[in-house]
């Protein structure tokens, strides 16, 4: 079977720039790809690189798309170089749609963010780094979020621990009837001692009466190269740890699993690589996985949530796809409209 291959780059500013230890991320750039078969059936995919997580760059992806030409077949789709993880995910996802779409001329279902057919998933909302977290948590709580992610390792630790105390006080004084789950994400920016300081602080929360807060996990406390340090932290503290940057691509995921990591794995499907290989790994190894966005558009989001819904582990952890940092132009358009507007 041969497919017409088309691709269109996009760039969309975030509503709220994302402050991380990697820097401030203001614009999401990516590529929407489209496969069309000889009966006119269509499948879209999204290349959403995050180079500082180890994926290819946008320029790499564009060069790859340009050299593919106007027609490709499965022999190309299933032999995309493993270093091009965002391209692998996007083009194979598009193939999954176009090759399995039931009707003759079918486009992807027009789904908005809230009505993706994976309503059983719960979502995590991203809090702004720093002191704004306590207020933002109240706003997101009203929107229905009960799981929150807060980036740390961005400001000096004393300032962040102070903001953390404000967040804890705000939760304590709210007399909430439900418990908030909080994920701390350091993006690898802490030293071993700073990670111990954060974990000791989190473990002391249990001593506060009636506190409706549970630290779900500390994400990527140390740099990617320090797996031994994170294995030591996992042995030493009860607060669960999650790896993100360390397991961003499928090859890293397999390697870190082989090296003994049995904590939480944050999986960003859009930059993990081949969706079929990702499914195969998660279904054979039964890992504790949290699925996470790379702030893609609804094209990549739908493909990623499809996998999250299939693989969501019994822990039913919220997926990191809260639409808190979405794009400037607010309302999402249909996928077909997104394509024609590019
Ligand atoms: O996982 C989530 O809750 C949202 C996505 C998210 O936090 C991230 C997406 C992409 C890059 C990073 O800045 C960040 C992360 O580190 O997980
Ligand atoms: Mg992370």
Automatic annotation (TrEMBL):
<dbReference type="InterPro" id="IPR029065">
    <property type="entry name" value="Enolase_C-like"/>
</dbReference>
<comment type="pathway">
    <text>Quinol/quinone metabolism; 1,4-dihydroxy-2-naphthoate biosynthesis; 1,4-dihydroxy-2-naphthoate from chorismate: step 4/7.</text>
</comment>
<dbReference type="GO" id="GO:0042372">
    <property type="term" value="P:phylloquinone biosynthetic process"/>
</dbReference>
<feature type="active site" description="Proton acceptor">
    <location>
        <position position="268"/>
    </location>
</feature>
<protein>
    <recommendedName>
        <fullName>o-succinylbenzoate synthase</fullName>
        <ecNumber>4.2.1.113</ecNumber>
    </recommendedName>
</protein>
<dbReference type="InterPro" id="IPR013342">
    <property type="entry name" value="Mandelate_racemase_C"/>
</dbReference>
<dbReference type="GO" id="GO:0000287">
    <property type="term" value="F:magnesium ion binding"/>
</dbReference>
<dbReference type="Pfam" id="PF21508">
    <property type="entry name" value="MenC_N"/>
</dbReference>
<dbReference type="GO" id="GO:0009234">
    <property type="term" value="P:menaquinone biosynthetic process"/>
</dbReference>
<feature type="binding site">
    <location>
        <position position="185"/>
    </location>
    <ligand>
        <name>Mg(2+)</name>
    </ligand>
</feature>
<comment type="pathway">
    <text>Cofactor biosynthesis; phylloquinone biosynthesis.</text>
</comment>
<dbReference type="InterPro" id="IPR029017">
    <property type="entry name" value="Enolase-like_N"/>
</dbReference>
<dbReference type="InterPro" id="IPR036849">
    <property type="entry name" value="Enolase-like_C_sf"/>
</dbReference>
<keyword id="KW-0456">Lyase</keyword>
<keyword id="KW-0479">Metal-binding</keyword>
<feature type="active site" description="Proton donor">
    <location>
        <position position="151"/>
    </location>
</feature>
<keyword id="KW-0460">Magnesium</keyword>
<dbReference type="GO" id="GO:0043748">
    <property type="term" value="F:O-succinylbenzoate synthase activity"/>
</dbReference>
<comment type="function">
    <text>Converts 2-succinyl-6-hydroxy-2,4-cyclohexadiene-1-carboxylate (SHCHC) to 2-succinylbenzoate (OSB).</text>
</comment>
<dbReference type="Pfam" id="PF13378">
    <property type="entry name" value="MR_MLE_C"/>
</dbReference>
<dbReference type="InterPro" id="IPR010196">
    <property type="entry name" value="OSB_synthase_MenC1"/>
</dbReference>
<feature type="binding site">
    <location>
        <position position="219"/>
    </location>
    <ligand>
        <name>Mg(2+)</name>
    </ligand>
</feature>
<dbReference type="InterPro" id="IPR041338">
    <property type="entry name" value="OSBS_N"/>
</dbReference>
<feature type="binding site">
    <location>
        <position position="244"/>
    </location>
    <ligand>
        <name>Mg(2+)</name>
    </ligand>
</feature>
<feature type="domain" description="Mandelate racemase/muconate lactonizing enzyme C-terminal">
    <location>
        <begin position="129"/>
        <end position="240"/>
    </location>
</feature>
<comment type="similarity">
    <text>Belongs to the mandelate racemase/muconate lactonizing enzyme family. MenC type 1 subfamily.</text>
</comment>
